[in-house]
Structure formats: C-alpha cells, structure tokens
C-alpha cells in the first residue's frame, strides 16, 4: 500500500529533473498524475509509467494551460487531490548591473510569469476540486527563497515571492486545503534560462559546488522525492501547512573557515 494510494495529482514542470523524479515516486506510491511541461519530453512518461500518467504539453504561465491540466485530471479520474507547482526557470545568477535596463522589464515579466504567476494560476484552477477533496498544494521554492546568492536578483526575488505565496495561501485556504513547499538547494539538472536575457538551458551544478557543500556531495534528483511525497500524504503531512521544507545540503549553515566542522 502506497502513501498516495487513490490520490490524483496535477504536477507542473514534470518533464525532467526533480519534477520527473517526483512523478515517478508518486506513481510508485499509488498516485495518478497529470504531468505537465512545456517540453515534449513529458510525453515519454506514458511509455515509462503507463496509464497512471496523463502527459500534457502546456504553458503553465497561462490560464488556459492550467485549466487544461485540471480538465484532464477530472476527465480521467473524476477528482483532484494535489496540485504541485514545480515549473521554474532561472536567470543564471545574473546580477542587476549586468542586465541592460531595456531588458529588465521583459526579463522580470518572463521569470515571474513562470516562477510566481504560474503556481498562482495553477492553484486557482485547481481550487474548487481541492476544496472538495480537502487536498493540498505543494510549490517548489529554492535555497534562494530565504537566502541571497542562490541566483541573480530576479530569480531570488521570485523565489522569495514563492515563500510568501505559500504562507498566504496556507492562511487563506485553511482548514480545507494544506499549502506547503520544498526548497531544494542543489540538484544535477538543467534549468531553462530567461530568453529575454538571451539565455538557454544550463547545468545547475557549477564547478566547485560539491566542495562548497557541508554534506560534500551533490544529491541526486531522487533525493527530494520523499519530501514531496510526505507533504502530499494525507497521513504523514496532515499537521503541516504554511511550511517551506529546506533541503539544501547544509548550505544555510555553511561555515566561513570550512563548509562543515569535520570537512
């Protein structure tokens, strides 16, 4: 018996990286998932995971993309228990002084459109069904949700905003819907850049990252799937709302002289 038996999930940003790993775990735990991504990579999940997954290529920074995901879940399984807003893009740690002023408005709109507006649209589209099922919302934050230097100024601002969205929605939707988040630190994946800044996808792990971490290793994308499962679980996560669970390999306690006391 799985931790998510009988639950139906809408999961954005499911095509690769942490999102794809969590979808695999959700299915293994008994969930049925509408897996949404802008990339057609998400279509591969049906071959891998079978009928427990309904892949959907959609732009979740639009209302239409989110309502299509909800309609897919309700048409296929008649209910919705969890919305996971995981889609996100990066600014490749671009500092403000390196962003030309004429590009700033477009870059801000693009990045906040995916990182902040998209989970709000998804939560709103799923809301009626989640209230009916007394379900939950999970939004992917970041080390940058509570710290500087986890990205550039736009990315850090967007992930701080995600933290605020989690806390406010947890208040607004209590007691009917729990709202939480996961804040990963480092994972071996590629993140889509901000096209308004001329960026493409890039590796998220930079040279020297492992040595800078107190735990001295790069966690796999699978390392985060248990946290997403716990928050979605009606038993393991039942007392949690308004929480952003940090999983940053110790970055927030990193020392000055050395990353960790025994390194």
From TrEMBL:
Annotated signal sequence is: none
Going by the UniProt record, its keywords in alphabetical order are: Oxidoreductase
UniProt-listed InterPro entries: NAD(P)-bd_dom_sf (IPR036291), Sc_DH/Rdtase_CS (IPR020904), SDR_fam (IPR002347)
Q: Which domain of life is it from?
A: Bacteria
Which residue spans adopt a coiled-coil conformation according to this UniProt entry?
A: none
Q: Give a single Pfam family match.
A: adh_short
Q: Which family does it belong to?
A: Belongs to the short-chain dehydrogenases/reductases (SDR) family.
What protein name does the entry list? SDR family NAD(P)-dependent oxidoreductase
Species name for this entry? Nocardia jiangxiensis
């Amino acid at each position: 018996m799985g931790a998510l038996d009988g639950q139906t999930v809408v999961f954005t940003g499911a095509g690769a990286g942490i999102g794809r790993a969590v979808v695999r775990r959700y299915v293994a735990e008994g969930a049925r998932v509408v897996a949404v991504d802008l990339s057609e990579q998400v279509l591969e999940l049906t071959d891998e995971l079978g009928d427990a997954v309904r892949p959907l290529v959609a732009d979740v920074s639009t209302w239409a993309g989110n309502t299509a995901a909800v309609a897919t879940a309700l048409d296929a399984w008649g209910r919705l228990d969890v919305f996971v807003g995981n889609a996100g893009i990066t600014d490749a740690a671009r500092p403000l002084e390196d962003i030309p002023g004429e590009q700033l408005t477009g870059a801000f709109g693009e990045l906040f459109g995916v990182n902040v507006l998209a989970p709000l649209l998804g939560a709103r589209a799923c809301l009626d069904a989640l209230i009916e099922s007394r379900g939950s919302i999970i939004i992917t934050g970041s080390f940058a949700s509570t710290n500087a230097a986890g990205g550039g100024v736009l990315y850090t601002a967007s992930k701080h905003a995600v933290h605020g969205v989690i806390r406010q929605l947890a208040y607004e939707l209590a007691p009917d819907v729990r709202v939480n988040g996961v804040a990963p630190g480092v994972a071996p994946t590629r993140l889509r850049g901000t096209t308004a800044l001329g960026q493409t996808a890039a590796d998220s792990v930079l040279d020297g990252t492992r040595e800078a971490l107190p735990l001295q290793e790069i966690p796999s994308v699978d390392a985060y799937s248990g946290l997403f499962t716990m928050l979605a679980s009606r038993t393991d996560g039942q007392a949690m709302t308004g929480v952003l669970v940090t999983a940053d390999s110790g970055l927030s306690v990193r020392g000055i002289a050395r990353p960790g006391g025994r390194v």
